[in-house]
Amino acid sequence: MQRKFILRTVAILGILWLVVHFALTLIYSVRELKVPDMVRQVSDEYTIPLFHQNWKLFAPDVPEYDVQLFFSTSDSGIWSEFHDVSEFHGFGRHSNMETVEQSICGGLGWQVANNLYTTDLEMKFDRIVESGQYNKAVYFVEKMHDTGDLDMPDSLQLQLRFRFTPDPHGAFNYQYSQLSFPKQIWRSIP
Amino acid sequence: MNRILNWIDQLTMDEKHSRSLRVAVVFVYGWFLLNLVLVFPNLNLLWGNESVIMRGSGSDGILSNFIYHLVYVPSHAYFVIVVHALAAFVSMFAFRFVFLFRITTWITGLMLYFSAYDAFNSGFLVMLLFSFFLIPVVHNSGKSMWIQINNIVWVVCVVQLSIVYALSAGYKWIGIQWPSGNAIYYSFAIDRFSFPSIQQTLSGTAWLWKILTWAVLIYQTVFPIVVWIKKWRMKLVVTGILFHLLIAVMMGLWDFGLAMIFAYAFLLPEKTTSQPAIH
Known about the structure:
- The complex is a heterodimer.
- By secondary structure, chain A is of the alpha+beta class.
- Chain A is built from six helices and eight strands, in the order H-H-E-E-E-H-H-E-E-H-H-E-E-E.
- In chain A, 44% of the residues lie in helices and 21% in strands.
- In chain A, helix 1 packs across helix 2 (37-47) and helix 4 runs antiparallel to helix 6.
- Chain B is mostly helical.
- In chain B, 67% of the residues lie in helices and 0% in strands.
- In chain B, helix 1 packs across helix 9.
- The two termini of chain B are 39 Å apart.
- Classes of the chains: A alpha+beta, B mainly alpha.
- At the A-B interface, helix 1, helix 4 and helix 6 of A face helix 1, helix 3, helix 4, helix 8 and helix 9 of B.
């Protein structure tokens, strides 16, 4: 009888914890859910870092464009052509390095959408250049260059290249666009 | 209340998913080894002092600092990778203190994920969750307590799998592309999720991508319900494996595809689940 009681108690405690666990991780996963701030805070603190999760998986919508990170380097004032970062270093479109590049493109894309502005018809990049996402992109490009045992250039310029997917029911013509970021001095990464 | 207590008592009597749990243990911990093999050529670019991923910072606290340790001290990465690989390998076996190795696999997996999170997708995350849930699984103990725990772990893992599909389907329904049938078309137009040979066929085949998009949407929507109906479970397993195999082959997402296929081990029926080699 006592054994049965212990088993029941263990099971009930375990199930109760699981109910709380799934409730908190669900609140964490569904950011659109309207819950009191305190509940959101508890859910975040419980879920990060042990149970972090994201199940959007190509949802709600897939980007209607392909974007790649390109770079150009300068040595004594002579600028190279622009190259796709991961492709230039020999990584295919399904490699982990391309996944990293895509993550960086996503961050830079957000910066362009939210922090690019114009003054007197001139594009201003100062907010973007100060952002963590931009610096992450520079770090990625420079580190990739370093590991490739290539000559050290003196300057660098990043570029985002977009290829817009045509409407599935219209004429099948890709539209292209690109955005070049300001030229900057090549930094030496420790 | 009595019904709940009866259900709890039943959990202690008969281990209903013994073999599927054994296969799942081998597949889940085996996935971490497979993942290391897949990223092996780029280990130095993902982890360690030469990592191309800029280090950030996380929330403070003892636990967070420990999990984010490789973010702050990348030079320890290779030690953690070796420990992770050894622990994942040993975790596939069944012996008394295996839970210690499973905890190690889970914790080192978290450390590796967070120090290179830009390089991984949700396949890593789903395997981390399962590696946590499988920690207490003990095979062939015969004791009521462990039978009860194994039965609860099985339910928890299937609930987790259902949540993955339910949330994924829910988010797809609130979008525009999935209900309109164009999401797969747009996905294949992105280089990262496609091959040149597939991209050449995108024009003029909108009907095919519509059928595929709606098939995926329907599958993910019904999964969380149908998975609990025993007689339909095997059909779900076959469809799901084909679905994820298609994702792996056509989109080049082998890590995610295999993670989801391996997760279907939980759904294998007892009589056809073969005895895993490692025991």
